[in-house]
Structure formats: C-alpha cells, structure tokens
Amino acid sequence: VGFEEFALNDYKSASLSSIISKLGLAKGSFYRYFESKLDLYNFLCQYANSLVAANFARYLNASGKDFFQDWVDFFLSLGEIEKEYPMAIRFRFKAAFEQSSEVSRQPGLVNPLERMKFMSAVICKYQQHGLIRKDIDLDFFSLLMTFFNFALSEYIDIKYKIPPTSPLYAVNHKSLKQDTENLLDILRRGWLPWSTL
Q1: What is the 3 state secondary structure string of the chain?
Q2: Chain segment 135-177, per-residue pLDDT in tens
Q3: d(CA 114, CA 20)
Q4: Who's near 146: CB < 8 A, 6+ residues apart?
C-alpha cells in the first residue's frame, strides 16, 4: 500500500491518511511501527533498494561470459520482484528522482553518487574477468548503465502504455526480453552503420 501511494504521488502529495485507511489500521497502530510519513518512506526506499540489490548480486556477479546478457537477466528479474510487491519498482524509480527537500536531506537514502559507486564496483568485477575493456572511464560507464536502466524502464512504460496504477513490467516476458536485448545491443555495438566505421 505504501509503495503504491508513493509511486502514484510525489512525496509531498502522498497521503499518510490514505495509506492508513487502505490498511484498515487505527492511526495509533500505524505509529507503533513508524514515527512519521518520512519514516515510512525511508523504510520503503531501503526495502526496495535491498530487493534490487539482491538481484544485482545474483545476476551481475561476473560469473557469466557476457556483461550485457547478465544485465538482461537482471533487468527481467525486476518483474519477479513485482509479483510480490506490484508497485515496488515503480516506486523505486520515482524515489530516485524525488525532489522534496525533506526527503533529500535524509541520511541513508541512496543518492546518485552512491549508485555510481555501487555500479562501479559491479563493473570492476567484469573488468577483472576480462569481460569489459579496462581502458573505459569506469565512473562514466557506471553512470551510463544506471541511467540506462531508468531509460529502459521509461521506454517500456511509454511503448506499452502501461497505466500508472499497474506494475512497471506488466508486459509479456518475451516482448520485454526482446526489447531489453535490442536496446542493450545499441550500447554493445554502437549506433553508427558498419560502413562508416
């Protein structure tokens, strides 16, 4: 319920009363678990990030032979998270761009620099295994892949006209896999025609 409320509204507009009402709780019962709306929001951010981080560790661990195939597998695994928490991934993407000063001042929330460092550590493993060139700017490539993930999700959302109230990956698995592979192939092989290389 919390994921849905914050996924459909920015932080300021999200209603704690609506969350409590949908849960069928007395207000006092809610406050036994969370001190405030911000406390709940922080908990949801950390929980959603932990779900995604677990999939990162599972799929992007340099045990395969192809970084991009591992990325496809990771990206598709986000749909598995949505089976248990339908709005968790949509919430996570929205939270990544939350502009509220109340939220941005919070310690412990993942910020762009932390995401880049996390991604750099992942990509470094692939470099050590000889699966990614060692001469690339690791920080830039890390940032590129982080924002590629956001862009790919937005592309899927737009292409399939997914209603905002639906899980982000409520798409046929085969179509989602094909789109992901096609778009990653642009990164892998570039976008110039072979004749101009």
Answers
A1: CHHHHHHHCCCCCCCHHHHHHHHCCCHHHHCCCCCCHHHHHHHHHHHHHHHHHHHHHHHCCCCCCCHHHHHHHHHHHHHHHHHHCCCHHHHHHHHHCCCCHHHHCCCCCCCHHHHHHHHHHHHHHHHHCCCCCCCCCHHHHHHHHHHHHHHHHHHHHHHCCCCCCCCCCCCCHHHHHHHHHHHHHHHHHCCCCHHHC
A2: 999 999 998 888 898 899 999 999 999 999 999 888 889 999 9
A3: 32
A4: 112, 115, 116, 119
pTM of this prediction?
0.86
